[in-house]
Each structure stands twice: as structure tokens, then as C-alpha cells.
Amino acid sequence: MTMVIKQEQSRRQRSKAAIRGRIIEAGIELFSERGIADVTVDQIAEAADVGKGTIYNYFAAKEDIVVAFIVAQEERVQKRVPRLAELNEPLQTILTRFLRFQFRIRRPYHRFMRVFLAQMFQRTDQFLPYMAEMQKYFDPPLGALFLGLQERQIIRADVSIPELVVTFKTIHLGLTALWAVEGPPFRGTMKVLNHEMKLFSEGLENKR
Asked: Class for domain 1-59, per CATH?
């Protein structure tokens, strides 16, 4: 009996995850085509082939779909962090790989990222609560990466990890904006990325 219950719960969880994933996929596709402000929950429900009420079972507002999508991408980044933190490579190479990986997983969603950045800058007040929520997922992997590098004495010991995270995120945001504006194949962005990571790393490296 216990096994039957567990199997039923497992099926139910898989079904819920599939519906949630379908809603996110439909929402991101519509946002990419029309912008976040011009897409309604009804339209997302129709595209996902679910009822409007089902959307609200998973998300309180359409903006929460954006947060869920960004968080899912950050979770992929978090899985990569331990490997990056242990690389026997120069600091510049490690940080460059970190950023390139993020851009690589976002490349299929380039249109959406352009829309997202535009909405973030144009509707800053409305987006602030959602940006604050996203930071909860952005900061831990960055902090873990820099702490790991500091413990290995690759980064200077006198550098504050929280301040370093804020500085790096600022650079990352600028690169993301350039990446979004430039578009594929992103040669200009990658050139700037390499240059900025070289300059950034030179100030951080532990000169032993």
C-alpha cells in the first residue's frame, strides 16, 4: 500500500512539474514575441492549453513566470560552480568560463532576454520586487565561487566577498545588455568580456 501511494504521489508530482513547465515555456515564448506588458494570463493559458485558474495555481502573476524561468537558469549555473571553483586555471579563465556558460544557456532565449532587459529598465518600479526575488538566486552561486577561489588563495584575502559579488554583478549586467543589443554571433560581446575579465582579474589576483 505504501509503495502504491508513493507511486501515485510521484506521478502527481511529475504531472504538476510538466504543467508548470508548459506554462513557463508558453509564457516565455509569448513574452519574446509581444513583450511582457502586452501578454495576458488568458493568452498564456490558451498557449499552454490549460485553464486560466490553473495558471494561478502555480503563479500569482505573469511576472512570476519570468522569475521562475530566470531561477531555473540560475540553478543550472549553480550546478556548474563547484567544478569552476576547483579548476586549475588562471582567475581570468575561470571567470570568463563562468560568464560564457551563462550566455551559452541563454542564447536560445535571446529574444526574451532583450524583452526582459527592456522591461526591467522601463518599468523599474514595478520590477523591483521581482528583481529582489531573483537576487536570492543570483548571489549564492557567485558568493560560493568567489569564496572557493579565495580559500584556494587565487583571490586576495583582503577582498570582501559581498562587495565582490555586487561589483561582478554590475559588470555582468553591462555585458548582458551589450549581448542583448548585439545579437548572434556575439563576437563583440565576447571580445569585451575577455578584456573586462582580464582587467578585473588583475586587481583581484593573489600576488604570491
From this structure: mainly alpha
Three-state SS letters, the chain: CHHHHHHHHHHHHHHHHHHHHHHHHHHHHHHHHHCCCCCCHHHHHHHHCCCHHHHHHHCCCHHHHHHHHHHHHHHHHHHHHHHHHCCCCCHHHHHHHHHHHHHHHHHHHHHHHHHHHHHHHHCHHHHHHHHHHHHHHHHHHHHHHHHHHHHCCCECCCCCHHHHHHHHHHHHHHHHHHHHHHCCCCHHHHHHHHHHHHHHHHHHECCC
Q: What would the mean pLDDT of 138-153 be, rounded to a whole number?
A: 89
Better pLDDT: 132 or 25: 25
* Other CB atoms within 10 Å distance of the CB of residue 199: 10
pLDDT value of residue 8:
57
Residues of the chain with CATH 1.10.357: 62-204
pLDDT band at 16 (very low <50, low <70, confident <90, very high): confident
Q: Which residues of the chain are in CATH 1.10.10.60 domains? A: 1-59
How many C-beta atoms surround the C-beta of residue 168 within 10 A? 19
pLDDT for residue 4: 44
Q: How far is 164 from 17, CA to CA, in rounded Å? A: 36
What pTM was computed for the model? 0.84
Q: What are phi and psi of 87, to 5 degrees?
A: -65, 140
Protein fold of 62-204: Tetracycline Repressor; domain 2 (1.10.357)
